[in-house]
Write a structure and sequence with these properties.
Helix content: 25-40%
Largest sheet: 8 strands, mixed
Distance between the termini: 35 Å
Mean pLDDT: 97
Radius of gyration: 18 Å
Strand content: 15-25%
Structural class: alpha/beta
Low-confidence stretches: none
CATH architecture: 3-Layer(aba) Sandwich
Number of domains: 1
Shape: globular
Strand order of the largest sheet: 1-2-4-3-5-6-7-8
CATH superfamily: Alpha/Beta hydrolase fold, catalytic domain
CATH class: Alpha Beta
Order of helices and strands: HHHEEEHEHEHEHHEHEH
Length: about 300
């Protein structure tokens, strides 16, 4: 399928900006670019009933979180959400719209994690922050109007990588029990050896070179690429994991590794739904102001969460 017309307009405008490679821009400028860009590409969701910024105990000091609560008395199901950004950029504000949309759409509490970012904090710092938040949510659900029996993990891109790994860690480390892993164009295999990584290597917003640079910021040593806590696709045993909803985009370098991960989960007996958005590009779910299908995708994610929580 050809590029979605709205995606093509976005990519043409992006190309006209002649933005230097990420390695030349550097982490701090990248973060500012992400904060500036979100103002022009993100739609304004309906507000949620309550938004609260808090800090909770983490492995190396406190971890900031933002807790979104829907209208009503609860107890509500809960989603621990890890934002994308290649482990380097983006933050709670750049993903505020996604979290509000999922809160209202799934009628759940969303606890968004402001994890430590790379390169200042290499693997496994950010992952440990996210797991600490998941454990805190399970132990303190009642205090935030949540139901500890209905917890999901989710994230987009690098955050999808965390969500997949959190499901593995929860299985292997005694919980929490999870209802769903919501994986939005997740990074699952940092070897970068799939056909889509070559086919979509340039010209679609996220490039293969971008991914190589992000990996270099995240990891201390190339050998860590083979660690299943970095590349969940390489985990030997995927049985006993929670159901997965995996959303992918046709013109995304990460397309194949996300869908192959879903196939491996299915082969291990895990219930999996893979929803590919033909014509779309990596990151599109945050672009509701310029891409109509972003709203469709968020609604589908919300429905997947509702179904999992009801089950």
């Amino acid at each position: 399928m050809p590029l979605d017309p709205q995606a093509k307009v976005y990519l043409d405008r992006l190309a006209a900006l002649n933005i230097p490679p990420k390695g030349e821009v550097g982490p701090e400028k990248l973060r500012q670019q992400a904060r500036d860009q979100i103002k022009t590409i993100s739609s304004t969701p309906d507000p949620v009933a309550q938004v609260e910024d808090r800090e909770i105990p983490g492995p190396e000091g406190s971890v900031p979180v933002r807790i979104y609560t829907p209208a009503g008395n609860g107890p509500f199901p809960l989603l621990v959400y890890s934002h994308g950004g290649g482990w380097v950029n983006c933050d709670l504000d750049t993903h505020d719209g996604i979290c509000q949309s999922l809160t209202n759409g799934a009628e759940c509490i969303v606890v968004a994690v402001d994890y430590r970012r790379s390169p200042e904090n290499k693997f496994p710092a950010a992952l440990e922050d996210c797991f600490a938040v998941a454990q805190w949510v399970a132990a303190n659900a009642a205090d935030i109007k949540g139901d500890p029996a209905r917890i999901a993990v989710g994230g987009d891109s690098a955050g999808g990588n965390f969500a997949a790994v959190l499901a593995l860690m929860a299985r292997d480390q005694g919980g929490p029990s999870l209802a769903l892993q919501l994986l939005i164009y997740p990074i699952t295999d940092l070897r970068f050896v799939t056909p889509s990584m070559e086919r979509n290597a340039t010209g679609f917003g996220l490039s293969r070179d971008d991914m190589v640079w992000y990996k270099q910021q995240y990891l201390t040593d190339e050998a860590e690429t083979l660690n299943p806590l970095v590349s969940p696709y390489l985990a030997q045993d995927l049985s006993g994991l929670p159901p997965a909803f995996i959303l992918t985009a046709e013109f995304d370098p990460l397309l194949d590794e996300a869908e192959l991960y879903g196939q491996r989960l299915q082969e291990a007996g895990v219930a999996v739904t893979i929803s590919r958005y033909d014509g779309m590009i990596h990151g599109f779910i945050r672009m509701g102001a310029i891409m109509d299908r972003a709203k469709t995708a968020l609604a589908e994610c919300s429905q997947a969460l509702r179904s999992a929580f009801q089950a």
